[in-house]
Design a protein that fits this description.
Residues 3-182 form the Electron transfer flavoprotein alpha/beta-subunit N-terminal domain. The protein has helices spanning 16-27, 42-49, 70-81, 93-106, 207-221, 229-233, 264-270, 299-309; strands at residues 3-6, 32-38, 54-61, 86-90, 110-114, 116-119, 122-127, 132-137, 143-147, 163-167, 196-200, 224-227, 254-258, 275-280, 293-296. 27% of the residues lie in helices and 25% in strands. The strands form three sheets. It has a seven-stranded parallel β-sheet with strand order 5-9-4-1-2-3-10, sandwiched between helices. The chain is globular and about 60 Å long. Bound molecules: flavin-adenine dinucleotide.
Length: 310
């Protein structure tokens, strides 16, 4: 049976997390189909059809699907799920909002945060903040899986030529209403898609210092900005910058941690980064245990020096 990936998109383009999810789906065996459910989402459906390895795109278009409301989107997924052995979502805020509803409606157990597809029915997933890996086997007829995107390379966004099939859109379930979105505009790369991340901790001391010290470094490197939870809780950085167990899971090419102690909950969100640079004035800080390059220094002098040298 084929495997279904639920696309994350903005009706015009496909979001990067979908590409990693396609790679995970290919490892499940069977053809990979992608569901694009939205309103006026032909652009996203066409983009999905170009993803390498995708055999077919299901395109459901209707007003009820305009804003990805979980109640409607889960009904749409369930409407097509009977034809599939696996239904995969990226383990993003959106995917985690919908997948449990789909699993409940299908009366199966959800497999959360898969980092490896061992075989069609066996998966690996981290727990205890990534300190242990569970091997999970499922006998359910449909496997509903959220995929930790950092565990899988992104499939190529182009090179495929899948057929696009229209499927009937579900009616509005009437259980939720879209009110509005407040989206912070930023020229920076999105945190989970960034190749370089400059992250700051409580040591920064204020949002002004975040801007004054870390922004120039991020600008020089074309990096996204991240933060520890302590920095976010203190109001030095916005919530959507939080990296870690209760924030975003990232694995960029380069992660620079300035004034971050390296608590286990922070490491859980960034320790798979390819190269980790830590700047901390405490030589005993746990961040140095995962760092490829450690600089024992005061960040308020080291970071401006780094910016000047770049
Ligand atoms: C259930 C739960 C979930 C959590 N989830 C997350 C999460 O998702 N993400 C997360 O980050 N945390 C999370 N935490 C919090 C986590 O335990 C830590 O409290 C937090 O990560 C600490 O942030 P920090 O390193 O910025 O601050 P601190 O622990 O206060 O560390 C500051 C560091 O800065 C260094 N420093 C101070 N001044 C300077 C200077 N001038 N120059 C250089 N270095 C300096 C210090 O030596 C220290 O190492 C969670 C906790 C719990 C209980």
């Amino acid at each position: 049976m084929p495997v279904l990936v639920i696309a994350e998109h903005d009706n015009a383009t496909i979001k990067g997390a979908t590409l990693n999810t396609v790679t995970a789906a290919l490892a499940c065996g069977g053809d990979v189909h992608v569901l694009v459910a939205g309103e006026n989402a032909a652009g996203a459906a066409q983009a999905a059809a170009q993803i390498a390895g995708v055999a077919k795109v299901l395109h459901a278009d209707g007003a009820a699907l305009a804003h990805g409301l979980a109640e409607n989107l889960s009904a749409q997924v369930v409407a097509v799920a009977k034809d599939y052995s696996h239904v995969l979502f990226p383990s993003t805020a959106g995917g985690k909002n919908v997948a449990p509803r789909v699993a409940a409606l299908l009366d199966v157990a959800q497999i959360s945060d898969a980092t490896k597809i061992v075989s069609a029915d066996t998966f690996e997933r981290p727990f205890y903040a990534g300190n242990a890996i569970a091997t999970v086997q499922s006998a359910d007829p449909v496997k509903v899986i959220t995929v930790r995107t950092t565990g899988f390379d992104a499939a190529a966004a182009t090179g495929g030529s899948a057929a696009i099939e229209s499927v009937p859109a579900v009616a509005d379930a009437g259980l939720s209403v879209y009110v509005g979105s407040e989206i912070a505009a930023s020229d920076r790369p999105e945190l989970t898609a960034a190749k370089i991340i400059v992250s700051g901790g409580r040591a920064l001391g204020s949002s002004d210092k975040f801007n004054e010290v870390l922004l120039p470094l991020a600008d020089k490197l074309g990096a996204a900005l991240g933060a520890s939870r302590a920095a976010v809780d203190a109001g030095y950085a916005p919530n959507d910058w939080q990296v870690g167990q209760t924030g975003k899971i990232v694995a960029p090419q380069l992660y620079i941690a300035a004034g971050i102690s390296g608590a286990i909950q922070h490491l859980a969100g960034m320790k798979d980064s390819k190269v980790i640079v830590a700047i901390n004035k405490d030589p005993e800080a746990p961040i140095f245990s995962v760092a490829d390059y450690g600089l024992e220094a005061d960040l308020f002098t080291a970071v401006p020096e780094l910016v000047a040298a770049l």
